[in-house]
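tool=predict chain=A
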Amino acid sequence: MISVTETAKQKAISLMKEDGTDPSVGFIRVGVKGGGCSGLSYQLGFDTKMKEDDKMFEDNGIKIVVDKKSFLYLVGTTLDYSGGLNGKGFTFNNPNASRTCGCGESFAV
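tool=predict ok
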């Protein structure tokens, strides 16, 4: 399962509305792809269509969809949002990552 903080929830709803996606039918699609300075990088976007190998979770009123391959890297992750001086954007607190890069956008297992 992937958890969503209250801050991430509020920002996701706001961005979905700006994007023209209805939060009651839309969801956050999270994934992992090869690349980045640590080997793997996170992907995040909004979607309304499920794919065949997707898994859906709901936490804090937000639906999260992850493809089967990415789920193995993301199980137990918490999605947060930081708007502080050190950076702004969604962040992943991933207990499976053995190391992360300085920007927090890539990781290794």
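The chain has a mean pLDDT of 86. The first strand starts at residue 3 and ends at 4.
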